[in-house]
Amino acid sequence: MKIAWIFFFIFILYTSSQDEYENRRKLMVSEQIKARGLRHEATLRAMETVPRHLFVPTSGRSFAYHDNPVPIGHGQTISQPYIVAYMTQIVDPKPDHKVLEIGAGSGYQAAILSQIVKEVYTLEIIPELAEGAKSVLAALQYNNVHVKTADGYYGWEEAGPFDAIVVTAAAEHIPPPLIAQLKEGGKMIIPVGSPFMTQSLMLVEKEKGKIKTRSLMAVRFVPFTRSN
Amino acid sequence: MLSYAQWDHFAYMVISIALLGFGASGTFIAIYRNWLLKRTRYLLPVLMLLTSLSMSTVIFFIRHFFGNFESYLLFLDISHARVLVLSYLAFFMPFFFGALAIGLVYVKYVRNIGLLYFSDLIGSGIGGLICLYLFHIFLPQYLPGLIAFLPLLGALLIVEKTDILWLPVTVLLYAVIPAVMVFHPASLQMSQYKSLSKVLNLPGAAIVETKPSVYGIIQLVEAPALRFAPGLSLSYTSEIPVSGAIFCNGEWFGPVYRFQREDSAFFMQSTTQQLPYVMHKVERVLINDGATGIGAAHAVSNGAKVVNVVEPNSAALNIFMKQKFDQNEHIYTFPEVNLIPKHSRSYLISDNSGYDLIVLPPINAFGGDAGIKATNEQYLFTLQALDDIWDRLNSNGMISVTVWQDYPFRSSLKMLALLVETLKGKGIDTPDKHIASIRGWGTITYVLKKSAISFDELRRIRRFCSEMYFDPLILPDIQKDDLQQYNQVEDERFFEYVRSIMAQDREKFYRSYPFNIAPPTDNQPFFGQFLKWGRIKSMISNYGWSGLPYLELGYLIVVFTFIQIFIIAIALILLPLVKIGWKGKGKSFTLVYFSCLGLGFMFFEIVLIQVFSLFFGNTIYAAAMVISGMLIFSGLGSLFSTNLGWQAKTISIVNFLVMLLIITYSIVLISLIRYFIDQPIFLKLLISFILVAPVSFIMGMPFPMGLRRLQIVNSRLLPWAWGINGCLSVISTVLATIIAIERGFIWVMLLAALSYAIASLIGNKPNFSRVKSWRQYRTALK
Mean pLDDT of all residues in chain A? Predict the structure, then answer.
């Protein structure tokens, strides 16, 4: 009988914590994303569904739904929820799309995309992060996400071309292989500027063989406190 | 060490506060004078032991007990403010204990003040020079432990016969601590926001070589995933090779790049920096601050016949030159490339060659410097520097400079303003005929051409833009439709701003723009300073309080430091009055006279460092030479002052002389510096010592003379005077920077002269009628 009671309490605690995270996700979407004018239905649905807290280390879980990036180790972060949503919306993902992500990090951005598009290919240069992302994505059964440990500079040639490319790390130049793997009419979003200071999100579009860029907005990626 | 772990301005802040240890020692002695004087015999060696102990362990304590500090997070996370305060306290200790020992000696043996002050200044001067040498040999983390042996030696030297047994044993025991710190030095963790930290985050990245130097810590990094191609065109299809990189104090110096002459797809030709080479054929090129030679390789790839590269950082170049490249891959071994190890501005003044193209170093790090360089003097980006460059151009010569696009727009507009005003200075009122500019997705390149831009050049620029997906920004025949064919900006007001600077009434625009984008001058050489105090409220409302460090961190920290120092200094000055009383003979004289000396001396020293930075082309050499030279000659002046006595009239005349000399220097010094700038370094050192000597000699006299007089009037005020002088010296270092940024160095110089003028007047005021002769004076001292 005692054991039954213990299981009952564990069940109650588990479900209430799940409810709590679900509530936080809803708040995150309404207060941080919708309030800033993002209206892309599929993106908002994905942001409400994907359990962001499971993509951050246990120590940072209580901050998972804050309006900040969260450190995930190896000097990397999981981006601020608004930035994830914005970058997703701006590439205009469609259900039949194939998307490449450069810099899987925790796997969260890939998980969001996987809820909207057909296939997501994500590359991560740091093996430990790639392994972590792979196991979380597998555990949550995001089966249309393919993770590979590789230098994002070369893209994923055998899987390309892609309808959209999402680059999560800023670079001083845009790698030529990525431009080559972008489909005609495709869109690439990339942060321009130091990852710790003021940045501008830039949209790169391929139209009639020509490449055009558009600075979308200045964003200040809130810095994180050193994790170790 | 602090500059390496964070940035110069952080070092500036901590050391400035810590130097208040001198002021605090005066306050402490003023309050506990009798108690301390009775125990000097024991206290002096103990204070020296404590100085040594705190000096050698300060970094260890900060690293292990106070946590990792981030100056960027000060405005976001209160815990970093706590670490900052504790760091102040830790760095304050060695200064306080050391100054307490010096102050006690001054007060107890005031009759020998001339000799004591001389010894103090000479020691400080020589110490500064030795430190410069030590920077060449040891990494900074080894120095606190090494230097900490000196106070221990001092403790041994002053041991009295009665203490001969126990003190040496104690000193030897204490010597274990600095010894441990020498063999196992502590170092501060580098900020995660530094370029080196970011590169080390790349997989496989590692530091393979570290060298100490006067420029800072030079490090060679191998990074298998690092590819250097800033602002590359989106039409570029070849591969970018992997490169290592060299860092100086954790900041990017240059890539370690193998250049091959036959490389037909050299990436630099697909950046906006190609603009001058597109316009017309160039044969003679001067690259300023050429670092590891990417600019030189760019010029060679475009067929330049003579490429002169000026780069002062010889320590970083030494590491680069040692790289095991093939003979035909090392740019500095190419026959047409000449490496000149000088400061660019000094070289421009001394060089008589003519060039087809002079390239300035890129402005802003990728993503902007966030005002980090606000307080750095940048002598290559002033109206006078552009004047010097103009004089080196052939009739069709060009100046080229590339700026990373920042938002809010600051550097890009200030650079344009600088070019336009240079043309205006040459009597050219049609900048649109002489300036061409193109814009990529990340960079803007400006070219200023001495002659008017030709139709043929315009055609080539347009074709290049079209091939590279760049947009013209400024061309004589530019149309609105040209501006954003490939790269759309987020805020289209940028183009209006550019037009406003190109227009005749640009002054009005400088005044109305929310950031300071007026062109810098040699008098205010702060290209990276954009803050307008009147706009700070709107900045906070637009970007939030926490957004401020991303805009103007450097200058804000200097002001923040000044406010703290001012409050602490005032408290330290007023505190002894509680003990010695608010009224009494000589107090107003002490306060005004020693304040003026502290302000005047440091104001003048700061300006001299600034002027000699131009002379030596290196701030570190300039600071070491000026500080050491001034201390040594002031020490001699102090020794000489013992012959001059105490009379008010003499003190007044000496201060008046200093004032006259400062005014004379403010008129003639720059001309002398420019005249001698081409001399070899040893002659330059000799010339600078000769220039510094006369004024420093006289400046060494007022302080000991004032103390001697005070001994007669009211000897209880001696420690207070020492404290006031210390506090004001620290205030003036920070205040001088603020005045220089706001009004220019000439104002700092004039205020130094004014301080000595007031000292001259006040020196004549107090009534010392009870002492009328040397005999009475000596009797009074006894």
Answer: 84
Smallest CA–CA distance, residue A68 to chain B, in Å, is: 12
Question: Which residues are bridge partners to A190 per DSSP?
Answer: A202
Tokens of B763: 């020196």
CA distances from A67 to A168, B55, B337, B424, B681 (A): 17, 43, 52, 49, 56
Q: Which of A16, A17, A30, A79 is catalytic?
A: A79
- Residue B588 C-alpha, separation from nearest chain A C-alpha, in angstroms: 50
**Residue B170 shares a structural domain with residue B301:** no
Q: Which residue of A has its CA nearest to B547?
A: A220
- Do B610 and B559 share a structural domain? no
- Boundary of a domain, candidates B525, B545, B563: B525
Q: Within a domain: residue A227?
A: no
Residue B420 sits in the same domain as residue B490: yes
SS3 at position B399: strand
Model pLDDT, residue B771:
46
pLDDT digits (tens, 9 = 90+) for B302-323: 999 999 999 988 899 999 988 8
Look at B486 and A180 and tell me if their CB atoms are within 8 Å: no
B644 touches chain A (CB under 8 A): no
Residue B496 and residue B546 in one domain? no
> Domain containing A194: what range?
2-220
Q: Tell me whether strands B435-439 and A162-167 are parallel, antiparallel or unpaired.
A: unpaired
pLDDT higher at A143 or B203: A143
Domain residue limits at B697: 585-782
How many C-beta neighbours within 10 Å does residue A224 have? Answer: 21
More confident residue, B648 or A193: B648
Q: What is the mean predicted confidence (pLDDT) over A1-11?
A: 56
pLDDT in tens, B470-487: 999 999 989 999 999 999
Q: What's the CATH number where B658 sits? A: 1.20.1250
The continuous run of DSSP H or E covering B530 comes out as none
Q: Do both B409 and B451 map to the same domain?
A: yes
Q: Quote the number of domains for chain B.
A: 3
Of residues B452, B217, B194, the one with CA closest to residue B313: B217
Question: CA B339, B345, B351, B357: dihedral to nearest 10 degrees?
Answer: 70
User: Are both B339 and B393 inside the same structural domain?
Assistant: yes
Residue from the list B73, B203, B551 with its beta carbon closest to the beta carbon of A125: B203
How many distinct structural domains can be found in chain A? Answer: 1
Q: Each residue of B63-99: pLDDT tens digit?
A: 777 666 776 666 666 777 778 788 888 889 999 999 9
In this prediction, does ipTM exceed 0.90?
Answer: no
**Is residue B198 within 8 angstroms of chain A, CB to CB?**
yes
**Of residues B202, B485, B488, nearest to A214 (C-beta):** B488
pLDDT at B75: 65
The mean pLDDT of B354-363, rounded to a whole number, is: 94
- In the residue annotation, A79 being an active-site residue is answered as yes
**Residue numbers of B between 715 and 744 with CB closer than 8 Å to A:** none
B646 plus B517 within the same structural domain? no
* Residues B289 and B169 placed together within one structural domain of the fold: no
**pLDDT tens profile B425-444:** 999 999 999 999 999 998 99
Provide, as residue numbers in chain A, all residues whose Cβ is less than 8 Å from the Cβ of B554.
none
Mean of all residue pLDDT scores within chain B: 86
> Which strand (E) or helix (H) includes residue B472?
strand B471-474
At which residue do the structure tokens 């979003």 appear? A189
CATH number of the domain within which A110 lies: 3.40.50.150
